[in-house]
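Before relying on records like the one below, remember that each one covers exactly one chain. Contacts with other chains, cofactors or solvent are not represented anywhere in the record.
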Amino acid sequence: MCNFVFQKNSNNTIYNYMSNINILELKKIISQVDVCMMNTISPMGDVNSRPMLCNHTDNEGLQWLYFYCMDSSQKIVDLINNDHISLVFADVAQGLYANIMGSATIVKDKSEMSSHWDARLEEWWADRENTPNLCMIQCRIDSIRYWYEGQEGLLKI
């Protein structure tokens, strides 16, 4: 259980957020949400957002999330320039809102892509990891700011 996380805001004032939920509970809740908004920063400094199907295959906690796309997409251009990423999940029915922040790595290794493959992706890529120019975005999670059932918290991973 994470109790207090201290950070400095833009005015260098220290503030904290209390988290009443542990990482495995939060993973279970977030894993029920299939689509998130992936936010990247363009080479010009603009924030680009797009909906992405999230592959929840990390079985050892909530440290990694995986996404697939073509290597010519704008998100890849953005991530080559700046690997910071934000993933926003929302489930209004559950009262869940989460912003996951971290860094991304672009993976082109077919065996690595295969190990995280989700059959739902075959709607877009029938040839699976053998699809030409397909790549995987591996997101390492650093922190999660969440709002759930009237609680707000910040978890550092």
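The chain is about 15% helix and 45% strand.
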